[in-house]
Design a protein that fits this description.
alpha+beta; 6-stranded mixed sheet; 4-stranded antiparallel sheet; 6 helices; 34% helix
Length: 230
């Protein structure tokens, strides 16, 4: 299996940096609360200094959404959406200890962190433009098809695991109590992404290894790097 960006994506967004982790042995019984709260404090401190829209990490994703022809205030990156909810509620919903920890890192660093149950992924995940025939399982239970040329995260069986790049994940590969093996992805487009993404990946790897087990794979993709195999 592997994760990659299509050539067309790399040409349109040459500044993209991605970090990838693969873990096995995930379970829902870990207590992540002590590991979450320090990152919540960091997120609060960042929000006290100014709105999330002015953070360079978020601003870069907004520019990317505009470049994709999307209205940035209608379709927000996952990190921006989480930060807005956290600012409003001073907390985030508890879903699964792994997801909760990744969400805490996401808001602390203002970068999207996606977690996929690899049992629901066929062959690979590629960030690419949609043909329009791919299948996306919405949380409502409906089967949707992305618009042609929409940026999606797609596998070998044409399952779209994410729509509008970092906007919305598919129900097909979400983490559940039965999840054991996962793929964790962090992507960034801002000026210091080549420094910040490895830091996020190392932070995720350390925290997840403490709660579960060490990673099977840890890869940073930058510039014209091809793909992360696992």
């Amino acid at each position: 299996m592997y994760f990659c960006h299509s050539q067309k994506i790399k040409e349109a967004f040459p500044q993209v940096v991605a970090g990838v982790l693969v873990f096995d042995g995930i379970h829902p019984n870990a207590d992540a609360d002590l590991h979450i709260e320090p990152w919540y404090r960091r997120a609060r401190e960042r929000l006290e200094r100014g709105p999330e829209s002015e953070m360079p990490e978020i601003a870069a994703w907004r520019r990317a959404y505009s470049q994709m022809g999307l209205k940035p205030t209608k379709y927000r990156s996952a990190a921006e959406a989480l930060l807005r909810r956290f600012k409003r509620e001073n907390d985030l919903p508890r879903l699964h200890p792994l997801v909760d920890f990744c969400n805490a890192i996401s808001i602390a660093f203002a970068l999207p962190v996606a977690v996929f149950d690899l049992a629901g992924v066929d062959g690979y995940i590629e960030v690419r433009h949609a043909k329009g025939t791919e299948a996306y399982s919405a949380f409502s239970g409906k089967l949707e098809h992305p618009s042609p040329d929409e940026v999606i995260l797609c596998d070998a069986a044409d399952h779209a695991h994410g729509r509008r790049w970092t906007f919305r994940q598919s129900r097909r590969s979400i983490v559940t109590p039965e999840t054991r093996k996962v793929l964790v992805i962090c992507e960034a487009l801002h000026a210091t992404a080549s420094t910040d993404v490895p830091l996020v990946i190392d932070t995720l790897a350390e925290g997840i290894a403490t709660l579960w087990s060490p990673p099977l794979c840890k890869v940073i993709l930058a510039d014209k790097s091809s793909r992360a195999e696992f």
